Amino acid sequence: MATIPINDVDPRNEYVATAGQTVFPYTFWIKSEGDLRVFQEGTLLTLTTHYTVDVTRVAAGGNVTLVTGATLNDSIVIDRDIPIERVSEFQTAGDFKATVLNLELSSMIAQQQQLESKLGRVLALPPESVVSTTNFALPAVLTDQRGIKWDSASGAYIETTADPDAQASAAAASAAAALVSETNAAASETAAGVSETNAAASETAAAASAASINLPTISGGDATKILEVNATEDGYDLVAAPTSTDVAVEVSADDTTPGGLESKIAAGTGISLTTLNDGGNEQLEISAADQSSNLAVSNWTGRTASQANVWTGIAWANSLEIFAAVSSGGTNRVMTSPDGINWTNRTAATASKWQTVAWSEDLSLFVAGGFTGAIMTSPDGITWTARAAASAVNWSSVTWSPSLSLFAACAATSGTTSIMTSPDGINWTSRTTPTGTAYVGIIWSEELGYFVTVPNGGVIHFLVSSDGITWTTRYPPESNSFSFVTWAAELGVFAAVSLNGTFRVQTSLYLP
Hints:
With 512 residues, the chain is α+β, with helices and mostly antiparallel strands. It contains four helices and 32 strands. The protein has helices at residues 98-119, 164-183, 189-212, 261-264, and strands spanning 12-16, 23-26, 36-40, 43-44, 51-53, 62-66, 75-80, 148-151, 156-159, 225-229, 236-240, 271-276, 283-288, 311-317, 322-327, 334-337, 344-346, 354-360, 365-370, 374-378, 385-388, 395-401, 406-411, 419-422, 429-431, 439-445, 450-455, 462-465, 472-474, 482-488, 493-498, 505-508.
C-alpha cells in the first residue's frame, strides 16, 4: 500500500522574488491544486488565471508557477488552505478503501498544521511568561482616538483618557522646546533655568504617556490565560483560554445570526439530524433514508435519436450544457442535445466510422476518433474540423487528463503505435507500447495520476502510464476480450468489462 507521510512542517512558504521569476516551490503536502493560496505583494492570486500548481501528493511538495513573471523584490507567500470539510463516507458493511482512508487522514493532519500555523501568527504571550493576573481581555472600543493601559487597581486593561498619539506629539513638541530653551540659555540664565525645568516636566509627561500605551509585564501563573472584555465593557479580564476551538457558525459573510451547527443545517428529503451526547462532547449525526428506489439510474426512458444510426460514443460538455454523440454510419454522424431528450443532427467533418468522443473542459473542445486514422474536433458540438491522426489505425477510445493537459487515444488495431497523445486535439504524437496488442478502452484517474487501457484480444494485459508517453503492462486475473474501462474516484476503483470469460467485470483498487 502506498503511504503519504505528512512531515512536521509549517505549511507556509515566503519568498522575495527575483526579476521575472515564475517558479516558487511549496515544501509541504497537498491533495489538489485548490488547496493552496498564493499572495503576491499582499494580493490573493487566482488559480489558472495567475498561476498553476504542480500537484505531486508527496511530503516534499511541488512548484507554483506564475503565469506572469514577478517584479524584482515582490513578496510571494504560499500557504496551504485545505477546506475543513469531509468529502467521503465509509458505508456500513462496505469496503474499507485504504486509498480513500489515507487521503482522509492526510487531509486531517494537514488541516491541523494549518490551524497551528495560523495560531502562531496571532498576538499572544510567550510560553516562558510568568503572569500574575487573569484578565487579558481588551476593552470595548468606546471612544475614538484612545489607547490601552494597565490598571493595577482593577487588574485589567482599560481605555486611556487621552489620545496617545496626541500625547506623544505634545511630548515631542515639549522636548523640542526644551532643546531650544537650552540653546538660548547663554542669553538668560533665568530663562535657561525655566527652560530646563519645562524640559524636565515635558520628559516626565512623555515617559508617563509612553507608559500608558505599553502592556505591563505579567507574572504569576497566568501564562495560558487570554484577554477578554469585561462585563461592563470598560476594561479587560484575564480568563482561562478555551479548551475547544468551537465557535458560532455563519453560513456566509452575510449571515446575521451565527449559531450552533445543528441550527444551521437544514435536513432535506430523506435526511435526519440527531444531536448525540447532548450537553457534553456533542456530535451531529446525519442519517439518510434508503433512496435507492428513487435514484435516477433505476428508471430509464426511451428517447428518439435524430437518426437511426449505430451510435458508438457520447460525451457531456459541462460548460456548454450539451451532449454530443458520434456514429459509425448514416448520413449525419453527429447529434447533439441539451437535455438528452431532444436531439439534433450535426454534420461530421468526414463520413468516417466514428467510434469515440471526449470533452476537455480546460480547452472547451470535443475530440472524436474513428477508423482509418479519423480524428475531428469541435468547440461546440456543431461545427467539426478534421484533424490528422498520428497514424491511420482504428481509433477506438479517447480521454482527457486535466492535470497533464493531455488527450490520449488508443486504437483497436494491433501494432506498437496503437496509442497517441495530443495537448490540443490537433497535433498528435504516436507513443510506443510494450507489445503489439489492440486496445479498445482508455481512461484517466485524476486522483491517482494514471492512464489505463484495456485490450480486446490477443496478448491480454492492461497498460498504465503516468504521463501518456511511457507505458507499462499490468495483467488481469483472467484473459478476456475487454470492451471498456472506467474510474470511480469516490470509491478509488477501476472497473473493466469484457465480452467473454468467467469474470466479465474486473476491478482494481490501485491498478498501477
